[in-house]
Amino acid sequence: MDTHDVLVVGAGLAGLQTATLLARQGHDVLLAERRPSLTGAIRTTGIFVRRTLDDFPLPVECLGPPIRRVVLYPPGLRGPVALVSERDEYRVGDMAPIYGRAAAAAADAGVRILLGTRYAGRQGQIYTLVGRGGPTRVRARFVVGADGARSRVARDLDLDRNRHLLIGAEEVYEIKRGEEPPTFHCVLDPSLAPGYLAWVVNDGRHAHVGTAGYANRFPEGLRRALERFASSAPGLDGVERPDGPDAVERRGGPIPVGGLLRRISCADGLLVGDAAGAVSPLTAGGLDPCLRLSELAAAVLHESLRSGRKEALTHFDGAALRSRFRGRLAMRWGLDKVRTPALADAAFGLLRTPPGRAAARRILFGDRSFPGTT
Ligand SMILES: Cc1cc2nc3c(=O)[nH]c(=O)nc-3n(C[C@H](O)[C@H](O)[C@H](O)COP(=O)(O)OP(=O)(O)OC[C@H]3O[C@@H](n4cnc5c(N)ncnc54)[C@H](O)[C@@H]3O)c2cc1C
Questions:
Q1: Residue 175: inside a domain, yes or no?
Q2: pLDDT at 374 over 80
Q3: From the alpha carbon of 274, which atom of ligand 1 is closest?
Q4: Is residue 177 part of a domain?
Q5: Is residue 372 in some structural domain?
Q6: Centroid of ligand 1 to alpha carbon of 1 (angstroms)
Q7: SS3 assignment for 228-263
Q8: How confident is the model at residue 373 (pLDDT cuts 50, 70, 90)?
Q9: Which of 56, 58, 287 has most ligand 1 atoms within 8 Å of its beta carbon, as the pocket-test mutant?
Q10: What is the CATH number of the domain that holds 341?
Q11: pLDDT score at 245
C-alpha cells in the first residue's frame, strides 16, 4: 500500500493550493479528484476581487478586463443605482486554464494527481479511492477535505458540515466588445434569486448570466428562474447569445453561506475551501477565502509534519476565525428576510440614499477579505 504524508481530496482551487504549498515544503502529497478533467464541470463564475489579485500570482493572461462599475437593480429593473470605483475592483478568470495552470504548478512541486478518482471512505489512516480500475487503498498521515460544500471528508472525520446552502447556476458565453465599460449587474429580486442576487457580468469578452438562492424558495425551480432572468437580464444590450449546444457553457453548484464552520480540524486532518464553509456569507464569494484558508492549512500541516506533533492542527480553529464574520453573518440574515419583491423595493429605497450608497460601496469595493491569514 502506498503511504503519503497528506492525501488531499478535491482539486478545486482550495485543494490545488494546499497540495502545492505542502509539496513545496518537501512533503509527499497525493491529490485525488473525482472529475476526469479539471476543465469540465466548473462551478464558479470566477470573479476575483482586488485583494486576491493583489496577493496571489494568478496568470494575468487568464484574467478578463478589470471591472470598476457595478449596477444594482430592484425588481422590475427600474431606477438602478450605478456605483463606479476609482480602482480596478474585479476581474473574471478564464477558469479552465486557471485550474490547468494550478494543476501544472502542483505537479511541478511534486504533487501526485489522480484524476477520475473518488474518495470513498476511511478506516483510521487508510483511505479508499475509487478510480477507473476500481478501488485502491492508500495510507496517509493526514487527510485534507477540499471536496466542496457537501464534503464527504468532513462527514468521515466527524467535523462540522455546511447546512446553510444556496444553489446557483449560470450560463457563460463569448461576446463581442460593446459600448458599455466592463460591468457587474446585480438584481435584487426574491422571485428570481430568493435570498441572494441574480447577476450579469459583461466584461466585453464573456457574458455570465446567473442566479442563486435557497433551493426550496424558487417559485418554479432554479432552472426556470435562470431562463426567466436570461430573457430580460440587464447589461446585454447589443449582445447576441450564441446558438449551438457547445456555444453556451452551463455552470452551477451549491454555495455555503452559513459562515466558516467551527470544527474544521481534528488529529487526522482538516477542511479547506467550501468544505470548511470558507465563503463570505453576504457576497457568496469563496475564491479569496479558499486561497487564504489553504495557506493557513498548509502552514499548520507543515508544522505538524515537521514536529511530529498532531496537536499542531488544533491551531486550525474555525470558531476563532468565524467570530470575525459577525457583521457579514448579520447582513446575510437581513438578505434572507427580503422575501417579496415589495420588500426588495423598500430595501432598494435605502440604497438610493447617501448612507445606503456608502454602505454598498463599502461592501462591493471595500478592502476586507477573509480574516486572520495573509
Ligand atoms: C454558480 C457559482 C458561482 C460562483 N461564483 C463565484 C465568484 O464569481 N467569485 C467567488 O469568489 N466565488 C464564487 N463562487 C464560490 C466559489 O466558486 C467557491 O467558493 C470556490 O470555488 C470553492 O473552491 P473549493 O476548491 O473549496 O471547492 P470546489 O471548486 O467545489 O472543488 C471541490 C472539488 O472536490 C471534488 N470532489 C468532491 N467530492 C469528491 C470526492 N469524494 N472525491 C474526490 N473529489 C471530490 C469536486 O469534483 C471538486 O473538483 C461561486 C459558486 C457557485 C456555485
A1: yes
A2: no
A3: 26
A4: yes
A5: no
A6: 30
A7: HHHHHCCCCCCCCCCCCCCCCEEEEEEEECCCCCCC
A8: very low
A9: 287
A10: 3.50.50.60
A11: 74
Short-list 217, 197, 216, 218, CA closest to 208: 197
Q: What is the Cα gyration radius of the chain?
A: 21
- The DSSP result for 296-341, as a single string, is HHHHHHHHHHHH--GGGGGG--HHHHHGGGHHHHHHHHHHHH--SH
Is the separation of the CB atoms in 193 and 179 below 8 Å? no
Can you tell me the distance from the alpha carbon of 226 to that of 212, in angstroms, rounded to the nearest whole number?
A: 9
- Which residues, judged by CB distance below 6 Å to any ligand atom, belong to the binding site of ligand 1? 9-15, 32-35, 43-47, 118-119, 146-148, 152, 168, 170, 210, 251-253, 255, 273-274, 279, 285-288, 290
Closest Cα to atom 2 of ligand 1: 44
**Share of residues in the chain with pLDDT > 70 (%):** 98
pTM over 0.90: yes
What is the number of domains present in the chain? 1
| Cα 42 to ligand 1 centre (Å) | 8
More confident site: 315 or 153: 153
The reply to whether 164 falls in a domain is yes
Contact 227, 73 (CB under 8 A): no
Domain of 94 in residue numbering reads as 3-365
Report the candidate in 86, 164, 200 with the shortest Cα–Cα distance to residue 322.
Answer: 164
Which grid coordinates are listed for 59? 496568470
